């Protein structure tokens, strides 16, 4: 969510529909692959490791919030987490950067893209509500062509899939990556989901703005973890869940609300918050910045996760 941004619409409640901004919706400015699915080889099908990092908020209020030092600390944390866990891929689930001031868009995007490619392991990116740019079309091309990028949403409104494969090329598990723009999952994303052909394989979903079911699961009392702020679904109505179930999504991993880190099950889908990663984003005084390490076992169709920190600490609710 917006937190420290002066542009935060204080009149809007956590479930009010916000004005649409065309985040991640432009077509590429030059021809790039039209593939809407990426493939990612994993080293051990029984211990596939995904490191989810979210809400890095590069360049967020640099004057007020520690400036370049905060961003440098975030980049250092990312490097340490990647080194420690050696994931098969890194999932950046939105708000990698933060509402560029006029004329700053190219510099901020270049900085953010460099930070993502620096992990030197395959990485995916889902758009967050602060990932604004003056030239989204150029970013679509750059994101698709960047080294080790799994981003394939350039021609599909920022939505795409990733197939995790064994060394021999056997498909093991699917990832569904959604662009939640500034409004959460809406008709455009649902239409894209409806057009997807189910593979029959188990899947995870990565998205920035949580689904309405994150509210439901907390209200139900069976979620575990910490909740220090309202769930900001921004008018998303929960109708995407059956579409995700149709694609065998077993868990959703969102970002957005920096000081929530909880999980709970609605029907057969676990709603999980990622741990906010960026020191320039709000909330570090309430909840330590970190990441989420997800482990998949393709042989048993099982998954597990834990919150991880750059200093080696681990937390599970
Ligand atoms: Zn954020």
Please list the strands of the largest sheet in the order they lie side by side.
Answer: 1-5-6-7-9-11-10-8
What would you say the CATH architecture is?
A: 4-Layer Sandwich
What is the CATH fold-level name? Purple Acid Phosphatase, chain A, domain 2
Question: Mean pLDDT, nearest integer?
Answer: 93
Helix content: 10-25%
Query: How can the largest sheet be summarized?
Result: 8 strands, mixed
Rg over alpha carbons? 18 Å
- The fraction of residues in strands falls at 15-25%
Contiguous helical run count = 6
Look at the helices and sheets and give the structural class: alpha/beta
Please report the first level of CATH classification, the CATH class. Alpha Beta
Bound compounds = zinc ion
Q: What's the number of extended β-strand segments?
A: 14
Structural domain count:
1
**H-E string:** EEHEHEHEEHEHEHEEEEEE
| Overall spatial form | globular
């Amino acid at each position: 969510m917006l937190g420290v941004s002066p542009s935060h619409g204080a009149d809007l409640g956590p479930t009010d529909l916000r004005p649409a901004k065309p985040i991640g919706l432009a077509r590429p400015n030059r021809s790039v692959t039209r593939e809407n699915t990426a493939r990612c080889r994993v080293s051990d099908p029984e211990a596939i490791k995904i490191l989810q990092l979210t809400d890095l908020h590069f360049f967020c209020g640099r004057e007020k919030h520690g400036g370049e030092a905060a961003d440098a600390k975030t980049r250092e944390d990312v490097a340490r987490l990647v080194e420690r866990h050696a994931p098969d891929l890194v999932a950046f689930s939105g708000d990698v950067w933060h509402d560029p001031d006029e004329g700053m868009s190219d510099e901020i995007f270049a900085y953010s893209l460099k930070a993502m490619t620096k992990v030197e392991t395959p990485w995916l990116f889902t758009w967050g509500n602060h990932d604004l740019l003056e030239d989204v079309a150029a970013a679509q091309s750059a994101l698709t062509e960047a080294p080790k990028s799994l981003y394939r949403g350039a021609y599909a409104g920022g939505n795409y899939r990733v197939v995790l494969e064994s060394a021999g090329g056997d498909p093991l598990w699917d990832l569904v990556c959604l662009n939640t723009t500034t409004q959460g999952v809406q008709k455009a994303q649902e239409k894209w989901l409806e057009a997807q052909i189910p593979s029959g394989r188990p899947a995870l979903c990565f998205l920035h703005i949580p689904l309405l079911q994150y509210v439901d699961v907390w209200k139900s009392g069976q979620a575990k973890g910490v909740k220090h702020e309202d769930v900001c679904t921004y008018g998303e109505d929960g109708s995407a869940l059956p579409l995700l179930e149709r694609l065998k999504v077993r868990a959703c991993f969102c970002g957005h609300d920096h000081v929530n880190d909880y999980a709970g099950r609605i029907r057969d889908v676990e709603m999980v918050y990622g741990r906010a990663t960026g020191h320039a984003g709000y909330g570090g005084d309430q909840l330590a910045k970190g990441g989420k390490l997800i482990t998949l076992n393709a042989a048993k169709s099982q998954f597990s996760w834990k919150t991880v920190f750059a200093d080696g600490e681990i937390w599970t609710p």
